[in-house]
Design a protein that fits this description.
By secondary structure, this protein is of the alpha+beta class. The protein has helices spanning 13-26, 39-45, 68-76; strands at residues 6-9, 29-35, 50-51, 59-65, 94-97, 101-104, 109-112.
Length: 113
Amino acid sequence: MKNGDYTADCRSYNQWREIMTEELAAASAFEIHCWIEETQEIAMGLQFGTPKESDWKYGIIIEGKVTQDFIDFLLSLPKPTDIEIYNKMTPFFTITLDTGFWSMHYGTEMSKE
């Protein structure tokens, strides 16, 4: 999925990891978007970033630098098991990178501008 704009439905955890590996290598900053009730996910994200000021009253946005520790953490997370609503690839609702890349709806959709 190199070079240019794309949108993709991610059907497997391995596919999600492959795309994320490539995208993270080119990025220097990230945002993680979590719903306010996702306290465990928020705590995980706050290990690598800080809350971003936002008017999103239903959630929190965490911003930070893409470091090797962040990359290792993100790519080592197991596939979530709570997949009743979404076939989740990641516990984070949205991950954005400063390259224009988006992993949305728990990694089930990806796009790059």
